[in-house]
């Protein structure tokens, strides 16, 4: 399959390279977080918070993905 004269591997390589450049630009241009963690906060509490936040994001995106998939499947079935 060719897209505007470019082969699929070339298109995929260009997409990966563009994504890498955009991520690098974001990392360079976005300022550092000025908030620091106070010295009296236990490291265990910080890691528990980070893991809990990661788990919450996992649940959120899983629920959104499942809901979107269900709705799209339903829409395709009614359209056919």
Q: What does this 3D model show about the protein?
A:
The protein has 80 residues and is mostly helical. Helices cover 74% and strands 0% of the residues. The protein is built from two helices and no strands. It has helices at residues 8-29, 43-79. The radius of gyration is 21 Å and the shape is flat.
Please identify the structural class as seen in this structure: mainly alpha
Mean pLDDT: 92
Biggest sheet descriptor: none
Query: Distance N terminus to C terminus?
Result: 26 Å
Strand content: under 5%
Low-confidence runs (pLDDT<50, min 5 residues)? none
Q: Approximately how much helix is present in the residues?
A: over 70%
Overall 3D form: flat
Rg value = 21 Å
Give the tally of β-strands: 0
Contiguous helical run count: 2
What is the string of helix and strand elements?
HH
Defining key terms:
flat; mainly alpha; single chain; 80 residues
Short structural description:
The protein has 2 helices and no strands.
Task: Map the helices and strands.
Layout: H1 8-29, H2 43-79
């Amino acid at each position: 399959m060719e897209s505007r004269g470019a082969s699929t591997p070339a298109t995929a390589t260009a997409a990966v390279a563009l994504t890498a450049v955009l991520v690098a630009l974001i990392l360079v241009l976005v300022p550092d977080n000025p908030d620091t963690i106070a010295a009296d906060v236990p490291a265990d509490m910080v890691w528990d918070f980070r893991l809990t936040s990661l788990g919450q994001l996992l649940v959120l995106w899983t629920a959104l993905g499942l809901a979107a998939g269900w709705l799209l499947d339903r829409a395709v079935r009614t359209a056919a």
